[in-house]
Amino acid sequence: MNQIQFSTDHIIKTIFPVAIAVCFVTAYWPVFQKLGIHWAKEDNSYCYLIVPLFFYLCWERKTSFHFHELTLTPSGIFLMLLSVSLIIVGELGSVETFLYIGIWGCATSLAVTLYGPRTRFLIFPLIILLFIVPLPPFVNRMLTFKLRIAASILATGMLRMAGVPVFREGNILDIGIDKLQVADACSGLRYLMPMILMAILLGYFFNKGWCRKTLLLLLVPPLSIFVNGFRIFASGLLIINHHKELTEDVYHDLSGWLVFMVAGAVLVAMAFFLKKIRMNPTGESETDPGGKPFGFVMPAVLTTVFCTFFLVSGWMLKSVSSAQTYPERMTFESFPMKIGEWKGKRSYLSKEIMDSLWADDYVSATYYKEGSMNIIHLLIPFYEYQKTRHTAHAPQSCLIGGGWTLLRENERLIRPNASEEVKIKVMVMKKGDTAMLASYFFFGRGRVVTSPWVNKFYLMQDAITQGRITWDGIIPGRTDGSLVRVELMAAPGQSAEDAYIQLEAFISHLWPLLPRYVPL
């Protein structure tokens, strides 16, 4: 009898959780692969540490939390359903962040199912596990831009205090004999997220009470800006003293590691300083009450439910990309190289750019007009279907990554004809002495949209409302579409308003051509 009881307990405590975990990883393996692609980027390299760190934090609780004692409860099913829905919505709407939050939610739902109310003892490791989700692109772009400007302003002040004349324009510092450009990689974002993680861990291990932990966390943004601004300041001094070679290549990377280590040392010192400050005691910590006895039926049912939902939703994700609706259209091979008074010359993108563009068809051309010093670059990528890592995305990151500084942006209305109004996004950008008026809009399925998030909402809406389920899988509704980019290089001394008039005239001539190549 004891042998039978041992076998039953062994199945419940080992086989069932392992079966759920295997189904979870198998069903969402493509999502894990996409997550790995993001982790490979330098801004997200800290993510590789999160899963080992999560298991260490769980192992660190081995004496206070009885992991082998389960408290099975169906309350985790609701969180699992919500997380699975978020994954499917993220795939249909091409919002990768939803995919990864859904993965974290599924893992959390499994913990809630296994340990019930006792999961509260695992809240901190689960919060740390959330760091597997990279920052959403728009948050990354916003933080990068703000951190670059803040570090540039600080470095400018430091250089002037050191007697170095400097003129700052955006993220470009002109120190006379050379110019310093604070690129994305030097924004300090690579310090910010690891330092936030470090501050949370230091607060957990060394500081009791929310007040100390909050103070440590609030120190991170100004510290990140300061160390990065100091790094730029030091680079300026080296250039002024004719040691530019010490700001390039391996020395540049070494200085990045050095300032990060200094920032980390400051955080550690602050954590120990806060530890010495006397504060009111927080009370005794609650102890784990342990698991509860249960039979064979509930774990079997819960395992079946979890495995079924994971495998079915994984099949749905796979079938979404294998069965698409492709509308008929003309290819861009026939796209005219004369638009109004503008004559163009076709160009072709490199394999590296195409790999990041994800387009199924595209036209790229440069247009000139006789008697005008303006040059217009046109790029229209078309997507037969759109899902994660195969979708149109706003060009700000590409332009800023190419060295352009965003001065301002707004939305403007143009009238391509007497009966239509079209809203486009217009950005005034500068690189060195060259100014550019860059515009874009998402075009497809009868809509013109300027917001990437509104565009993703319509993708999700059309995929769901126009889709159908067959024996071959889920066939989503049409998700085809394009991004129309029109970028006008301003002539020297040309006003922004005059450049906009030229841009509007070109788009007005371009407008009637679009439906031939991008189906309505």
UniProtKB/TrEMBL annotation:
Every Methanolan biosynthesis EpsI domain range: 311-517
Listed GO biological process terms: proteolysis
Pfam family, one: DUF3485
Membrane-topology descriptor: Multi-pass membrane protein
Subcellular location: Cell membrane
One Gene Ontology term of the molecular function aspect: peptidase activity
Keywords, ordered alphabetically: Cell membrane, Hydrolase, Membrane, Protease, Transmembrane, Transmembrane helix
CC annotations in GO: plasma membrane
TM region positions: 12-31, 43-59, 71-92, 98-115, 122-139, 188-207, 214-234, 254-274, 294-317
Domain of life: Bacteria
UniProt name for this protein: Exosortase
Species the sequence originates in: Desulfonema magnum
